Amino acid sequence: MKINPDFKIGCMVIAMPIYPLTPDPKDVIQVMNADHKNTFFADVHARGYYPSYIKRYLRENGISIRFEPGDEEILKHTVDFISLITIRVAVKRQIQPSKLREKATLLVAYLIQHLKASEWGWQIDHQGLRYIMNVLYDRYQKPLFIVENGLGAVDQLITDKNGEKTVEDDYRINYLKQHLIQVFEEIQDGVELMGYTTWGCIDLVSATTAQLKKRYGFIYVDRHDDGTGTLERYRKKPFYWYKDVIQSNGGSLFEK
């Protein structure tokens, strides 16, 4: 801040909607406890102090945090905005450890019934993006920035009718379109959104699985998990689609 007082400093957290499996109050409390794990770091970043729920957790688990003189004052320098990674959703149900197999079966059945999933089993929940953005903005009243949102998929490189190599990944276009429509909705809700960026612009090694075949980009890279490939790059279908979205400031999302 001494260099430039106009700089905006933010943090990055995972934005993951968590739903109760049933309306049973025990399930709802499970969601509350899981949400606390999600929001703890953002609470400290945005509010400038350790929240009471984490103090209880530390106390009940015999954990003591050592604060040096001046540490609490440092925490009061809160972030100007919060950036978000939007990934899968979670479902919580209070259940005895002896019934873990039943729990797993129930969760899978629930998610299959209500949400589609990617090839890696990550549930696709575009409305959950609007929901969690509203929750976070209501909680912090700070600008939000979606910095990672995308679909990992096995893409097939083909040659189109013009003789150009490309990927006809309409599934990715649909995924991004549905999420961006929800971005529009949350802005109408009053959420202050600084920006939106996809994950990612170009195919790369997936951090979660260390795979190249789990592709996210608008540009296909000819490289494979066994190390073969030329490293040549080819524009996928969403490359041109996303260009139109940017040029129309989102207007093309609502064209039939």
Tell me about this structure.
With 256 residues, the protein is an alpha/beta fold. It folds into two domains: 1-148, no CATH class; 152-171 and 201-256, no CATH class. The chain has seven helices and twelve strands. The chain has helices at residues 25-47, 52-60, 71-75, 100-114, 126-140, 170-189, 237-247; strands at residues 10-15, 18-20, 81-86, 90-92, 116-117, 123-124, 144-148, 158-159, 165-166, 193-196, 219-221, 233-235. It has a four-stranded parallel β-sheet, covered by helices on one side. It has a two-stranded parallel sheet with strand order 2-4. Strands 5-6 form a two-stranded antiparallel ribbon. It is globular. It starts with 9 loop residues before the first strand and ends in a 9-residue tail after the last helix. 19% of the residues are buried.
Helices and strands in order, then pairings?
Elements: E1 10-15, E2 18-20, H1 25-47, H2 52-60, H3 71-75, E3 81-86, E4 90-92, H4 100-114, E5 116-117, E6 123-124, H5 126-140, E7 144-148, E8 158-159, E9 165-166, H6 170-189, E10 193-196, E11 219-221, E12 233-235, H7 237-247
Parallel strand pairs: 1-3, 2-4, 3-7, 7-10
Antiparallel strand pairs: 5-6, 8-9, 11-12
Helix pairs in contact: 5-6
